[in-house]
Specification:
The chain has about 325 residues and is of the alpha/beta class. It folds into two domains: about 5-255, TIM Barrel, CATH 3.20.20.70; about 260-330, Four Helix Bundle (Hemerythrin (Met), subunit A). It has 17 helices and eight strands. The radius of gyration is 20 Å and the shape is globular.
Length: about 325
């Protein structure tokens, strides 16, 4: 487990928590691409951990660090118990989801709907902080529905600061809880980067990361140059992981050498073998590797080969190597 200053340093660039995407296999791959970037789990609900006993959802490998657990919930006592479970599992940070707009999340009274109840969120994070020495952080939107972001966001951040929160990731869009699907909520509401920049000026002592619509590492660098403490990237880091992560250690942290996606494929092979020995299936891992060569010669052949062959009953490391040969031939 890392100390708070080291996690804050890692948060200069982070891969956002994404349901059904940022599982342990995805994080292992991303860690091979970047040694420095902060990685987040998929959201895990506090009720699933506390009431359902689903502690298997906390599984992660030591190689993933620095890694943060994102929790969903709205009951302070339940979140405190879930936080302790996450801390005991060894996570470097516990993050509270106040940004997800899905119907499933709303029905559980957590996620973006909590932007309407900042006092409850403050109670939640206070209880979470009391349960562990691991840093507690928040990921939020700039507002929801008919709220005026320029009014609600500074009030929300101020309440979080009063509750002891020192690091917040802000998705620079409103969430529309009625009328837009979760997918539309990632694209339709307009981005308001200037408002998030203003929050950094208004709360200079807080570590604020900006999230939403960041598609390249160059864009991330521009946000950092504009004064933000960190940048959180979601879909671009998943679909184009090499473009975002291979040069991140050098360009964002000034440390280390660039990683090579071909070498990373070879480094994944022992991990794949171990997963198969435990009864896992190849495509559970390779589905996260499909974008590894996006934009490069052979990318389409790589995706096609893995998509067609990784689901076969006896598919294994040799399937990945055969897919990689498609890339090698295209680059020759």
């Amino acid at each position: 487990m890392l100390t708070k200053p080291l996690v804050s340093k890692a948060a200069r660039l982070s891969v956002a928590p994404m349901m059904d995407w940022t599982d342990c296999h995805c994080r292992y791959l991303h860690r091979l691409l970047s040694r420095e970037t902060l990685l987040y789990t998929e959201m895990v609900t506090a009720p699933a951990l506390v009431r359902g006993g689903a502690v298997h959802l906390l599984h992660h490998s030591t190689e993933e660090h620095p890694v943060a657990l994102q929790l969903g919930g709205s009951d302070p006592r339940e979140l405190a118990k879930a936080t302790k479970l996450g801390a005991d599992a060894g996570y470097d940070e516990i993050n509270l989801n106040v940004g997800c707009p899905s119907d499933r999340v709303q029905s559980g009274t957590f996620g973006a709907v909590l932007m309407k109840s900042p006092e409850l969120v403050a109670d939640c994070v206070s209880a979470m902080r009391a349960a562990t020495n691991v840093e507690i952080t928040v990921k939020c939107r700039i507002g929801v529905d008919d709220q005026a972001p320029e009014e609600v966001l500074p009030d929300f951040i101020g309440r979080m600061q009063s509750a002891g929160i020192k690091r917040i990731s802000i998705h620079a869009r409103k969430a529309w809880l009625k009328g837009l699907s979760p997918k539309e909520n990632r694209d339709v509401p307009p981005l308001d980067y200037p408002l998030v920049y203003q929050m950094k000026r208004d709360f200079p002592e807080l570590h604020l990361s900006i999230n939403g619509g960041v598609a390249t590492l160059a864009e991330a660098q521009s946000h950092l140059e504009a004064g933000m403490d960190g940048v959180m990237i979601g879909r671009a880091a998943y679909h184009n992981p090499s473009d975002i992560l291979c040069t991140a250690d050098r360009k964002i942290y000034g440390a280390g050498e660039d990683s090579d996606p071909v070498q990373v494929v070879h480094l994944m092979l022992p991990y794949i073998e171990a997963h198969l020995r435990q009864g896992g299936k190849l495509n559970q891992i390779t589905r996260h590797m499909l974008g590894l060569f996006a934009g490069k010669p052979g990318a389409r052949a790589w995706r096609r080969y893995l998509s067609e062959h990784a689901t076969k009953p006896r598919a294994g490391p040799e399937t990945v190597l055969a897919a990689l040969q498609q890339v090698t031939l295209a680059a020759a």
